[in-house]
Structure formats: C-alpha cells, structure tokens
Here is the input.
Amino acid sequence: MVERRSPKPEAEGSSPSAPANIDEITMKNPIKFIQEVKQEAFKVTWPTGKETFQGALMVFAMAVVMSLFFLLLDQVLKFFLELLLKVSI
Here is the structure.
C-alpha cells in the first residue's frame, strides 16, 4: 500500500521519519470491515426506477440522434467524393 504524503511539510505525517500509524493501514477484523462497507452502501443515494428509466431513455434517444447524424454526414461525404471522382476522370 502506498503512503500518501501532504505537500505541506508542517502537516502531520508528512515527514519520512513519522510514517502513518500501521494499525490504521492493516485490517484486523474482516467482519467489522464488511459491516462498515454495508453502512457506507446504505449512505449511497440510489436512483429511483423512474430516474433509471429516464436515463436509459435519454441514452437510447441520443444514440438514435447520433446515428442519424453520422448517416447523413456519410451520405453527404459520399456524394461529394463521387462528384470529385467523376470530375477527375
């Protein structure tokens, strides 16, 4: 594990002679760790079903719009390329 140091020398723990407390780094009780993970997961604000559906709908709509844009761009570039090739022959 990499120890993070503050760029400010006056900050506690930034001196190489005073490393971080090793007890804070090592995990002693895996059950306590899992309980803390669960507590943090409950703090997360999860999106509602309606918000998830709206987000998915927006992604789908943008995919359709962008595919139509690139189709149109491809057709315009194809037209000009064919025009250019007919002129040069």
About this structure: The chain has a mean pLDDT of 82.
